[in-house]
Design goal:
Elements lengths: L6 H7 L40 H14 L3 E5 L2 H9 L7 E5 L4 H11 L5 E5 L4 H7 L4 E7 L11 H10 L3 E5 L4 H4 L9 E5 L13 E5 L2 H14 L5 H12 L1 H20 L5 E5 L9 H7 L6 E6 L3 H9 L4 E2 L9 E3 L11 H7 L5 E5 L5 H13 L1
Parallel strand pairs: 2-3, 2-4, 4-5, 5-6, 10-11
Antiparallel strand pairs: 1-7, 6-7, 8-9, 9-12, 11-12
Helix pairs in contact: 2-9, 3-4, 10-14, 12-14
């Protein structure tokens, strides 16, 4: 019997481990739109790349294996994955959603899905009572980000999934920030896991991708039909880039987390410039114990509030090692201004309630030397 492999081995070897036809250690890029049939009513298993492509198949099986799911699906972006996900629902369906979510998700739900008759209630999913209060007769699913973007809230996945099952609801978890290397929501009861693969899974700020991983055959069949019918699949070359990125996921996540903890502690000491630091790996974080219970790591995302809005422009203008740019999860450290970038689509009253204001900055910590990153932040603040 084959022994269970550790996750830092699985990320390197993927699903098949190599190309079964040639022995290529680097899984090949099958850059073909169509495949030749051996004869009438005969197939190699591959007919047309929108339906199935060998490179994308290896990637999809790899992400499913990493998440301990039944099947995985790769899309052309994280939002393409969300678009396919929402096709599981019909007009009149209601979803309970984390109130602190990526602004693009909110925009998609409210500006596109709502026009199709879907309803959304946004609540603080850190507290199960909020979810229970939002439940309605037409509720079909609970959609959570944990940790959330950008306030780093942490929901108790197992408790939410238990409640969802008692009401016959689907639980969907956006696992972009922690990846299956640090957190496996399906093991905690989730039905579907969502990723913006553009971020940590790709890891190099060079590829757009999105993933859905499901926990059972029925959901897999439904999503396979949606994926091939709507067509926003990940191409062969981007699938190969994702496979290559995933190979170093373990060492990147370990290094980025180590850097993030050191930087978060340093940021806490900058009381003359900062009001608060949000990082789930700090023992002071109110959901620290829950994070330890359901995840094996804390990730590398930090948000912090400066004391005065004038520090925002100073920091963004003066950072040199850290790049002022959207996105997150790559080997390069990036700093983002959520109120103008990632969360510009969310109404101001909601942002104010969440604490996303004009003094909040979000830092995606990369793999650089942490002292260089700290010195860069220091000179930017003091200059």
């Amino acid at each position: 019997m084959k022994k269970h492999l550790h996750k830092d081995t699985v990320v390197v070897h993927g699903s098949k481990g190599s190309d079964p036809y040639t022995g290529s250690v680097s899984f090949p890029i099958y850059q073909s739109a169509t495949f030749k049939h051996p004869g009438l009513n005969q197939t190699t298993g591959y007919d047309y790349s929108r339906e199935l492509n060998p490179t994308r198949e290896e990637l999809e099986k790899t992400i499913a294996k990493l998440e301990n799911g039944f099947a995985g699906f790769a899309f052309s972006s994280g939002m393409a994955a969300e678009t396919a996900l929402m096709e599981l629902f019909i007009p009149g369906d209601h979803l309970i959603v984390s109130d602190d979510i990526y602004g693009g998700t909110y925009r998609f739900f409210e500006e596109i899905c709502a026009k199709r008759g879907l309803e959304f209630s946004y609540v603080d999913t850190c507290y199960l009572d909020n979810i229970k209060s939002a439940f309605k007769i037409n509720t079909k699913a609970i959609y959570i980000e944990t940790p959330t973007n950008p306030m780093m809230k942490v929901a108790d996945i197992n408790k939410i999934c238990s409640f969802a099952k008692s009401k016959k609801l689907m639980t969907i978890v956006d696992n972009t920030f922690l990846t299956p290397y640090f957190q496996r929501p399906i093991n905690l009861g989730a039905d579907i896991v969502l990723h913006s693969g553009t971020k940590y899974l790709g890891g190099h700020n060079d590829t757009l991708a999105g993933f859905l991983v499901v926990n059972d055959k029925e959901l897999a069949q439904r999503l396979f039909f949606i994926q091939k019918s709507t067509g926003a699949v990940l191409g062969p070359f981007d699938s190969w880039l994702m496979l290559r990125g995933i190979k170093t996921l373990a060492i990147r996540m370990d290094k980025q987390e180590k850097n993030a903890l050191q930087i978060a502690k340093w940021l806490q000491s900058q009381k003359c410039y900062l009001d608060k630091v949000y990082y789930v790996g700090l023992p002071e974080h109110e959901r620290y114990e829950i994070s330890k219970k359901q995840a094996s790591g804390f990730g590398a995302m930090i948000s912090f509030k400066v004391k005065d809005v004038e520090y925002v422009e100073k920091i963004l203008d003066r950072v040199k090692v850290i790049s002022y740019a959207e996105s997150l999860g790559g080997v390069e450290s990036l700093i983002t201004y959520p109120i103008l970038q990632t969360h510009a689509a969310i109404p101001k009253p909601i942002l104010e309630r969440l604490g996303v204001n004009d003094r909040l900055l979000r830092l995606s910590v990369g793999i650089e030397n942490p002292e260089d990153l700290i010195n860069d932040l220091k000179q930017a603040m003091e200059g």
